[in-house]
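Appendix C. Worked example: Peptidase
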Amino acid sequence: MKKSQIIVLSVGLILVVALYTLPTMVVDNAEDTANLEQTAEAAPSDMAAEMHDPNMAPVDRSAVQNLKVRLENEDNKENFATFADSIGSLYASSGKYDSAAFYYESAANKIPSQQRWEKAGNAYYEAYGFAMNEEKISYLAGKARENLNKVIDANPDRLDLKTKVAMTYVSSTNPMQGITMLREVLVEDPKNETALFNMGVLSMQSGQYKRAAERFEELVGHHPDHIQGQFYLAVSYFESKQQNKAKKQFELVKNMTQDPMILNSVETYLDRI
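Step 2, the predicted output written as structure tokens:
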């Protein structure tokens, strides 16, 4: 992903944002991979300083500051990790995932464990999903990979984490590594919901609507309640000039949700058929 991410605030927001925020690339045609654009920048050395000074509510800031004082004066590793985890949790509850990740990772550095690395990696991944600045996207993606890969190395069957790592590579200087990882996940688990969805969205963004339709057909065949997949399947049919299928699919989506943003989008497309 690039510039902004597939932000999971609501289904409606995903539908508006996802198609236009991923890097332009061909994801299923190997002969075109040489044309992939490498745009990610290296993270600035002071990026971490930006990560743990959010604009929080006064009550949260007070609690964080009290814990920071205790953290700075704590020599015991167990206590340090406990305080760092607590600060991370306060930031996470306020939606400040980059700051939460920084402190979760600080705890993991003091008392390493698979659970701590995963918590830090997931927080970095959440922050990456909301990042808008190109440099911060690159930095947070790298930190998510760094922490999650420590868990994957010890647990290679964690396909959920492999899928997250794959999507961070999409916005890196080696985006095809992410596509390759998604394909590997699908080899191991052909029904993997997240991998099928992401491959479909990436195909749409690159203009491969027929291929996207195939991916979303697979997705909804295995996961019929996946509303984003059902909607994107309809869009893929529409964009690939399969109007009859598109109309039928949009009508199906109308009966699956009450979300006003989705319904408005469906009506807009139906008016164009």
